[in-house]
Every structure is written in structure tokens, then in C-alpha cells.
Amino acid sequence: MLDIKLLRITHWILSLGFMLCGLYTYGQAPGCDLAKGMRSGTLDNGMRYVVLSNEAWDGQPVLMNLYVGTGHSMEAEGQRDLSHYVEHLPFSVLREEAAAKAGAVQEAIRTQRLPLQAGTYLEHTVYNYEFDRVGSEVYTAGMDLFSRMIGGELQPSTSLLNSEQESFYQEYLYRQGYRAYDESRVLALLSNAYPAPVNPDAYYEHIKDFEAEQVSQFFTDWYQPQRTTLLIVGAVEDLDAVTEDIKKYFGSLKAGDPNGYVTYKNDYLRRPEQFVQLKQWEQRGAIPVQTTIFLYWRNPEPAEDEKLALQQQWMNELVYTLLEKILRQSPTDYATHYELGIDKEGELPALGLRISCFTGREQPSIQEVMGEVNRLKKNGIAEADYEQYKEQLETHFKQRDTTSLQTVFRDYGQRILDLESLEFNMYTLKKEWIAALNYERVNTAFKAFLQAGPQDIAVIAPKGASVLTVTEDQFRSWFETAQSDIRPYDNTRVNPLITEDEVAALPEVGHRLAGFDTLGGMNLRLDNGVRVILYQQKGAPVQIHGFRKVGAGNLDAELNIKGYLVPAWVHQSGVGGFKPFELQDLLQRQGMIYGRALYVKDHECGIRLIAPPAGTEELLQLTYLYLTDVTEHPKAFTYWQEEEVLLYNNPPYGEAYDFHVLSKRDKGDPDAGITALERYKAVQNTNRAELDSVYRSLFQKPQEFTFLISGDFKEADIIPLLKRYLGNLSGGNLAVYKNHQQEYNLVRAAVHKRYRISSMQPEAIKLKIVYSLPIAREDWKEQVALQLMHQVLKSKIPELRFLKKRGLYVNSVGSYVNYDLQQGNLSISLPTVDGMEAVLIQDVEELLKGFKERPLPEQVLKYLKKRIYLQGIVGRTVLDKAYRYYKWDTSLPELEEVQSYLEHLTPQDVQQLFEQKLVPEHRSVFIAGADES
Hints:
This protein is of the alpha+beta class. It has 4 domains: about 1-15 and about 265-480, Cytochrome Bc1 Complex, Chain A, domain 1; about 45-255, Cytochrome Bc1 Complex, Chain A, domain 1 (2-Layer Sandwich), CATH 3.30.830; about 510-730, Cytochrome Bc1 Complex, Chain A, domain 1; about 750-930, 2-Layer Sandwich (Cytochrome Bc1 Complex, Chain A, domain 1). A 7-stranded mixed sheet has the order 1-2-11-12-10-13-9, sandwiched between helices. It has a 7-stranded mixed sheet with strand order 14-15-16-20-17-19-18, sandwiched between helices. β6 and β7 form a beta hairpin.
């Protein structure tokens, strides 16, 4: 989370996509020239192909992409998202055919050695395919599939079309496409590339109209050889044979009609300035009322010369990045409250600022953002900022590996997507352009770009909002009225977290050495009762995890729910006299990560921080401040409440989050947490004094804290710092209850429950089947067995979509051990559509019955064993191991022990695990659907 201008900044889409390297520059390794391992050309029907080979890639899979010049901008009226739906079908056909043949392709899909992925863009659709070697059954199946697709001979079955309608709707829900409805309406008005979006409440019915005739016609109209490029990258032994295969599969395909489409970019760039005002779609369950404003700076029209156009594109990208960097560093306070996002990806050929604010506060929010933009229009960028970024750019460019398989594959693919020439020596061209850059040239381009705009403005506001009645002239007048009080940003400002006088006032308390633990950690006791364990790790960053075995569940009943609010409140309030915005700026300049350091669980609270070794003292200073001194700024509390309002119904909250909390709560999990609605209500019904009391109750008991510290430090250097900072943590007298009795290692009764969640879409259903098993903390073999069952079930669950055609886009299997309850959990999540719940529950029962009736093939089990997530058993870091040791007094096995246990597990052992563990008595079923009220 990056705080900017009174709230978090949202980074839209992708960061800077530089470094596209040329066709004749890859083979940089000694004795290896990729130009000698390349075939490219254009077939008589207009289809292009590029085959790149390098013996250094031997042993890696061969990567093949098919790029088709079709996408959202080809959709006609009433066809919204049809191009994306069509993208779903080819690989579904391949899976269906592979299942019928039961050969090498099916085996590769089942063992996930054939990942099938595709993506739809405005003007392109990309199909990603990989295989072990040229000439294999998987290779020929891919060539055959793609040739039928481009030749208009792909005929999905009716059952597959119907199934993909449901899975397509699931993807829409999973990616929260309904949240982008208003933004899609804006884009549809600003550019002819976007057909009008479909109202989310009617979206499922719209998808049901995508049937065979429409699909076939779309393939015929837009999937044509002259719109297609095939890219193959890998250790190809016989380039000529692959070239002949391409001619064999694609050469006889007939070229289609070359007319019928004109690129949307020039159309947009030549339109007059646009001002759009839209009433916001009333989302289900949405409580906060916000306005969203889009400001677009159009790119200059590209030069006709391709090399000049590329240099112009690179300069635009540089300007975008510098603008983002400066806006993130803008001075700020608690005066207003808004989100600022920067869109550099180019849904339109423009740079966009996206401002979300509370309705009624549009003018001050716009004026604050545009005040900074106006300053930049006048003064440009600081030379120090330019020099720093150019150094980073040059370093990145020099360090780029231009010979790796993935780099070559990715860069060529991006050049194809961007419709760039494949003949340039792009690496040299870009290197020369960077070398020729200077401050005056970049600053001139920066100011000129900003002077030109914003050309386009779009406002989306709730019904009745006064901003919907403002004229364009009135709105643009806001841009010029906030310049008088613009403060220049001082990038030389360096404030210490704690001043020298404040440090001098903290004496070094006494300590004693309590010995060394089983992990080799030095155990110290400070005079104020704090326990510190040090783990030296050469070359590692310094990490600190301090925790106390007291949490929200130990508070009085009326304060319990407010314990969960404390971390975010402290984060937004600030510490040690620093506002959160100032603290972010300071820490980023010192190379430290700024985020929510504090956390609160049901029966634990703590702090986590990380810094480079050079920042060890600042790390301990920050720990001291977080645990002793919350800022008393009068506006901080209101700001925090508004921040929580903006977060409600948005990630990380939402229906999936609430469903997770409710289902864990009904299983008796003490760390289930609180729902977004409960949190929202608690925020509105609390005050500063209550939060301050809860904060002191939880975090100001130093004698009950254990601090685990790892990293690259010297004991002689860090111990005096511990004695000064952690040794002066103050202790309050507020008591908390500690008589909570937890039930351990018990099998809980099965639960069957349905929840009504108001923010869900009407047709959406979330189904979760959970098996809960008793597993003792020290019983690592049972924990390994749980992970193995997880992998076995995960390998078969996709069959519900691809064999039974249940229309599942998302299906997942998860496993975890609750060490407090000493309980293992295996969960199967199947988001689907209304009416499918009973069918899917029966499907899962059939799958489990199959595991119990017949053992897995030996080869399949061997493969799945390799996928076991051993880190969950043996610990990922020394702090993970130390936390388990000091929290539950549990020592972990050695990796060799776990691997030996796995090696001796047979298919019959796994069969027995399913028979014994996954029984109806251990199963709970949870269903979430839309609130019908």
C-alpha cells in the first residue's frame, strides 16, 4: 500500500514496459548466435511466423504463442465480450478431444505439464501453448488445433458452449468485472473501440445468447491467416522441419477479407476534447457514496517513421514514470481524502489520472491534484529526480539477460502485440536512445506533455450529486484556482525518526543472557521484562517479529470487535509525531518498507517490520514508536474513519472475505476475524478514547512480549540498541482477561449452512466443502498426509469443468493446519451459478469415492509427491521456526525426514488416508448467495 495525497495510491495495470530487444540481438552467449537459429517469413495467405532456437535452452519446454489480430474492438452492437468468450473455446475443445482419445495430450493436461492460457486484448487475442519437444503428440495437437481455429473449422459442441457460458460468467464474477461497469461506460463514450457495456444484473442473460451461430460467425469474420502471427521459441533441432510443419498446417488456409476494421487509436487521438458526466450504477450492498473522476492526457499522434514513433513511445513512458514518482512524493496532510490512481497501460492511447473522492468534495480534491500538476507544468522535474531515474534505467538495461528463453519469448510477444517491426535491432536502438537522453530534453518533453491536457474528462457520481450539473467550463476552472498555496516539494528533507535529544533521554537498561535455544538463537532478557531472541543470518535483511499471547478475544465483550480495528487506526494516525504520509516518505528514503506493522488476532497481537541491515537502528526506533507513542493529530481519527468507509465493499473486503470469516466462525475457529459489515459498523460506533484504551491494553505490556529478530547484524552492535529502545518500552496497568479456554484436537460436528450476502450478484453461488481433522501440532506426518490429499484432490477437481462440463471457471483446493485448535482442514471451493449446488456436492462425493475404491497410479503419485508444499512442515525461515517454538513449544523435523516419509508412501497408503479421513462426520458444507431481500 502506497499512501499518497491523503489515501492509498492505486497503481493501474502494468508498470513501465521498457526493454524490447531486437531480432538479431539475442544469442549473446559465447559461441551462440541466435540469428543462426532463426526462421521467419510470411505465407502466401498473409500469415507471419517466427521460429527461434538456441541449444542453451535444451531441457526447457518449447514455447508457442499464436497471436490473432482480433479483440474487443471488433465486437458489434450486442456482442459485448464475445471476443473473450470465443477465446475460451479453443483450449476447451482441445481438452474435450484429449479426454476422448486418452493419450499423451490428456496426460500432459492432467499433470499440468501443458498449461493452457489465453488472453483477450483490444485488438489481439493470444493463445499460449508449450510442449516438451517438436514432433511429439502434444506438439502436433497444438498445430492442428490452431490451424483449424484460423481456418474456421473449429466446431465446439453444444454442451461445451453451454458449459463455457457458465464458466465465462464465473470469470466475470471472479475478476469482479461488475465493479468496472461504470469505467467501461466511460471508455465506450470516449472511444469507438468499446461497445456499450451490459448492466451487471443482466450480464448472465447476455452471456446465454452466445451460441453456435454467433461464435461461428465471429471466427469467420476475424480469425484469419493475414491477422495471425505464430511464434515458437525453444531448443528446436530442425528449424526447416518446423517451418515445413507451419506451411503444412497453415499454408493451405484461405485469406479472409482484409477490410472491415480501422485501428481505434488514431480515431481517438483526432477527436475533439470530451467531457462526460454519468450517473453511477447503484451497486448491491454498497454503503459508501463516492465520485470517480478521470483526467486523460492524450499521447501525441505517432510519427510516420517507425523508429521515430518508437522513440516517441519510449519518451511517453519515461514521462509517465517520472510523473508517477513525483505525485507519490507530493506533500500532504489530513485536509481532504481521496484516492489517486495513474493509468499508464493504455486502454486508451493516453495517460490517465483517476481520482475517487467522497461526493461533495470533488472540487478540493481536483484542485489539490491539479495544483501539483500545474506546478509541474511550470517548473518541470528536478534534475536530481531525472538523474536518479536515468541511472536506474541504464542499470536495468545493462543487467537485462537477452538470451534467456523466457525473456526472448516475452519480448517478441510484446512486439507482436504492439504491432512493432520484428526487423529492427531493437536492443541497440534503445541503448542509443537512452545514451542520448539529457535533463533539458526530458524536462522539455515532460512540461510539453502536461501543457497539452487534460483533454478528456469523465465524471461518475451518484444520483443527485451536484457535480453532475457542473458545466465543462466550470469544471475546468477548478484547475486554475488552487495554485497560490502550492508548496514546492523539498526532496532534500531528511528527518530522523527520533532526534538526538530524544535518543539521549532513553537510557540503556540492563539485560542478562538467558542462554541459546535449539535453533541457535541468543536469548536475552531486558530489565523491563522484554524477551529478545537473536538469529544472525549473513547477507539477510533485518526482520523483527514481536508478539504477545493476548488478542481481541481477551478483551471485555464490548471492546472485543474493536481490538481488530487498532492496527489500521494506528497506521492512519501515525506515530512519534509523524503523520502517516510523512512516515511513508521518510521510510522510503531510508530503504524501509512502510505498511501496517501492527496486527491483532483473537488471542495474539504483535508487530512485524523489515529493513536493510544499514537500517537496523531505525527499525528498532520504529518498533519503539509503534509500541509507545501514537500521534495525537486532531484530524487523524476522522481520517481513519473515512479510510475505512472507502475500503468497505472493496478489496481486501467483499463477499469472498465475509464468506471466509463466517464459515471459519461456524467451524469454531477463534481467529475467524470479523466481517466487512461488522467492521464498518464498529468503525462508526467507536471513539478515539476506546481505541486508545484497547491499544494500550494490547501493546503496552512489554514484559509479556517476545521479540524474534533475524538478519545480518553484529551482537556487539545490536544489543546496545535493544537495551536503549526495546528496553524503554513502557508498560500500562490495563488488565485483560486471559482465562479463555480453547478446545484442542477435537473433531467438531459437521455444519451445513447457507449465508445471504447483500453485495453478491443474483446468479452467483459460492460453495465450500470443508473436511476438518484432528491433527496434533507435533504430528508432522499427519500434516504431510494432509498436504498429499490436497494435491491428489487438486489434480482431479478440474475434471468437474472439463469432463462433466459443470461450468466452473474457478475451482480450488486448500489445506491448512490450525495450530491453536490442533486441527487440519481440507477445503474445496467451487464458485458457480444458482441451482448447481446439489449437483456439485454430489460430484465431489463421486470423486472421493473413486479415490477410496481404487489406488492412484504409481507414476501419478510420484509426480504429486513432488508438488508437496514442504515449507509448511519444515518452516520457511528461521523466524517461522522460532515463532512455532516460542508460541507452541514445537520443534520441526528435518527436511530429510519428511522426504523419507513421503518416499515410502504407497498408492494404497493414500487410498487408506481418503477412507479414514474424508468421511461425512468430518465434512461441513457452506453456501453463500445473494441477499434475496
